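[Meeting: bench + compute handoff]

Bench side (C.D.) handed over the final construct sequence. Compute side (W.E.) agreed to return the predicted structure before the next meeting so the bench team could plan truncations. Sequence as handed over:
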Amino acid sequence: MEVSFPHPRSFPMGEGTVRVMTRFFLYAVALCTLLCSSPSLNGQVSHEDWERSVSRGLDWLANNQSRRGHWDADGRYPSAMTGMAGIALLAEGSTATQGKYAPNIRAAADFLISKSRNNGLIGDENDDKYTYGHGFGLLFLSQALGEEEDEVRREELIDVMTRAVLFCGASQTTAGGWGYVSAKDGNDFDEGSTTITQVQALRGCRNAGIPVPKEIIDRAIEYIRKCAIQEGRGGIQYSLKSGGGGRPAISAAAIATLFNAGEYDDKFVPNLLVYTNQHLGDINNNSHGFWHYAHYYYSQVKYRQGAEDSKEWETYRNRLFARLLREQGNDGAWNGSYGRVYITSNNLTILQLDNATLPIYMR
């Protein structure tokens, strides 16, 4: 949209006319500024708007970290929330020893290390969804390990992560997936979202040099494939045992996980891409549920595809970022399911994919 300015000579130059011209000029400048800068109107986000949004969000996370180093969702899921918040802070470029958020990252790592059990679980067994906490906590530690400079600290992290990988293997179900708790505690129940969390964490560990038995990941990938409807053309269902239709959010998460596993070109993944693009390609489509969770993974997929087609990623990114900035609260946080820490960490990770600081999300 263009704003045209009448030529000054077309106005009689009386005192009243000058006031009218002044008001008109100020209005036009304000309107032009609004049209050019507001992500809610033109679907574009300037670098300055993006930078300000990310900074405000990260500061909110840092200021709302507990003295023990963790975050939670109204008193629940501290390991999961700490892992997700820590990932968002790492994405900025800070490490446990350097950068603006180094103290927060180190405190988060300290907390998760303190939650490491003898059996390898990172979290509390009385948590009704401790597998999520284990997965996101382990993923965060896997991304933090590479920048850890203290040798004693590195050995401590390696020990925690090595035992955590063994716990993943021990808690895997007979079908190859994971549930909200271990196979033993959950009567061998499994479902897609927790399975995907474990696989990303395991891939993060393998990338960091932690031994990960190949059969654990192979069985998990096979589980994801078995959850597909019509070779992926109908998406991925919630659980292998539950049946039902495909879920766009879990389908996007599955593609991101398959990409992490190095699977790109077979028929299965392209079919899933068609399905997810149909359901998630419209940023304003909320009908599928779990919008933020879906785009947390779908953005990873689109970002990775951007290595081949940068314009496709940029088009999607601009529309997505515009919505995220529009929904951000005045204090820098976002509101949504599972509380402000979860949604804020989720969105900040999306907004910082282009930083390319985390190995697990790199192209």
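W.E. noted at the follow-up: The first strand starts at residue 236 and ends at 237. C.D. will use this when planning the next construct.
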